[in-house]
Amino acid sequence: MSTREKAKATTEQVVGKAVRKLAHAVGKDTTPAKGAALEARGKARATKEGAKGSFRH
User: Does residue 48 contact residue 21 with C-beta atoms inside 8 Å?
Assistant: First the structure.
């Protein structure tokens, strides 16, 4: 897993979680879904990069 892609995945997960929690605290309805989607995209990116790394070895 390249350092840049790993950083992107971690950033997306952290930002998504923060957006989701902030939206719940404020009481927004659609924003938590956007945060959850961003978090899921970060997890998917991390999984993809981990799989690529296992094929290289």
Answer: no
**Model confidence, pTM:** 0.74
Confidence (pLDDT) at 50: 81
Q: How far is CA 22 from CA 19, 30, 49, in A?
A: 5, 12, 28
DSSP state of 30: S
Give the largest CA-CA distance in the chain: 47
Distance CA 45, CA 19 (A): 18
Rounded CA-CA distance 46/52 in Å is 10
